[in-house]
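Bumping my old thread because nobody answered last time. Still need a sequence for this structure:
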């Protein structure tokens, strides 16, 4: 009556995280489905949440303070979007969140690696330490940075039972095994010692660094909205889980490092599939952009609730334009993907903005920018004179750099148009989004949730998790 579950072994973990094998006939299968609360109970206990379900950060503050509060009040956890948000605005949001959430309610902040301006990451960490932010979602890291190590190790100590206690937790969001390995190992001792020499860590904190990994937990991100490596969860998740098992054993960590999944999760079926793959928690993104609490404009939300799974495309990433990094974006009703790809093609072909032929130049100025290259350059100069004069000086010496800065302007401009909801310039909206939202739209079609004005981020999370539990119950024959 229970199908294939009757005839297989189950590998799970005991209270210490060690693998234990059982035959399904020997145990109550409900134990392994966690009474309808899929994922790892230890993950829920670690963060004080009811479901192993997180809402991820979205750039430009699209994951708003209101979104984070709504998640926390519902017994879930959300991360504030801080990418591209001024430091003072981030601080205002932290104060708001702490004011509106009761003690014990979970919340976190995004922490972005910034190779071009590492001082911004350092300032963000100092802000988080000042306000005792308990959890960060570490994103866009290629390697572990000094500011991240400082956040992780600040305040680490042994409690009265002699156990290592870390007040600052890190959930690393990544899509590559080599990056996962860096987060699963202890912090690089050379970098730790540099922080001690600068007075940013104590000798006692440094001494405990080898006993813990950089990340408490790992979130494996597959083909998601925004920055993406276009990975496949079905291949990535088992591989990184096996890597986790090997490194945990190698270093003898006392606490379990959970591995979760993100990217493409917009329906109960997708969530259930992640748990069957072995995910211990899940993180959603694109579906939360089309909710009442999201910070994107109502014009964009109206567009997003109409999209389907095929309505996304890939475009160059404005913040990493020169190296050809890609983002997944909405393509239905907009021309941004094709125009952004055209700009990158021109950047790859020419050494200078002056090398572009007159016809193409007029097309970009009149159709894309709606202003001249000269006007864009003047605006760019005004920005970099205040924020990064060294970058401006380099552009004045290099025509290629100058061209990249002029083209980068379009990416900033297109994001601003989407945030403001300028309906007269819809075709140039840059909206980071994955096909998960299209699948969600199909799931809720014909229900009150078809209209985004009835969509609330925490309600969506609970509905997905409860329906996923029902699917797994039906598949296994176990009543949850």
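Sorry it took so long. Here it is:
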């Amino acid at each position: 009556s229970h199908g294939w579950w009757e005839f297989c072994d189950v590998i799970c973990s005991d209270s210490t995280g060690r693998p234990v094998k059982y035959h399904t006939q020997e145990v109550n299968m409900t134990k392994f489905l966690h009474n309808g609360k899929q994922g790892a109970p230890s993950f829920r206990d670690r963060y004080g949440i009811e479901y192993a379900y997180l809402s991820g950060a979205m750039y430009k503050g699209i994951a708003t303070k209101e979104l984070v509060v709504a998640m926390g009040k519902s017994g879930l956890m959300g991360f504030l979007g801080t990418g591209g948000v001024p430091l003072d605005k981030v601080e205002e949001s932290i104060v708001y969140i702490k004011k509106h959430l009761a003690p014990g309610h979970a919340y976190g902040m995004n922490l972005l690696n910034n190779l071009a301006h590492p001082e911004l990451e350092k300032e963000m960490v100092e802000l988080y330490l000042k306000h005792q932010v308990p959890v960060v979602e570490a994103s866009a890291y290629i390697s572990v940075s000094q500011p991240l190590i400082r956040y992780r190790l600040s305040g680490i100590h042994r409690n009265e039972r002699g156990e290592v206690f870390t007040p600052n937790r890190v959930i690393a969001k990544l899509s590559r095994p080599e990056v996962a390995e860096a987060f699963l190992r202890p912090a690089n001792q050379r970098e730790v010692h540099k922080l001690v020499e600068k007075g940013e860590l104590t000798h006692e904190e440094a001494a405990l660094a080898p006993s813990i990994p950089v990340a408490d937990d790992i979130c494996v991100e597959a083909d998601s909205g925004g920055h993406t490596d276009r990975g496949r969860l079905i291949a990535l998740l088992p591989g990184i889980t096996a890597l986790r098992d090997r490194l945990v054993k190698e270093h003898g960590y006392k606490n379990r490092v959970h591995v979760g999944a993100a990217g493409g999760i917009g329906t109960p079926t997708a969530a259930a599939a992640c748990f069957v793959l072995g995910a211990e928690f899940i993180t959603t993104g694109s579906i939360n952009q089309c909710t009442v609490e999201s910070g994107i404009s109502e014009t964009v939300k109206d567009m997003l609730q109409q999209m389907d799974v095929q309505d996304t495309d890939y475009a160059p990433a404005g913040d990493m334009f020169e190296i050809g990094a890609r983002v997944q974006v909405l393509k239905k009703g907009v021309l941004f993907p094709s125009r952004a790809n055209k700009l990158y093609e021109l950047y790859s072909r020419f050494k200078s903005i002056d090398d572009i032929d007159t016809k193409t130049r007029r097309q970009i100025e009149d159709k894309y920018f709606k202003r001249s290259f000269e006007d864009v350059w003047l605006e760019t100069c005004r920005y970099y004179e205040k924020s990064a004069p060294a970058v401006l000086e380099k552009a004045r010496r290099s025509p290629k750099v100058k061209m990249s800065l002029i083209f980068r302007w379009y990416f900033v401009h297109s994001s601003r148009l989407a945030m403001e909801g300028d309906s007269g310039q819809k075709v140039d909206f840059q909206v980071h989004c994955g096909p998960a939202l299209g699948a969600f739209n199909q799931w809720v079609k014909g229900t009150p949730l078809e209209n985004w004005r009835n969509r609330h981020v925490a309600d969506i999370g609970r509905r997905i998790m409860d329906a996923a539990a029902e699917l797994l119950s039906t598949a296994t024959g176990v009543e949850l």
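The longest strand covers residues 169-174. Let me know if any region looks off to you.
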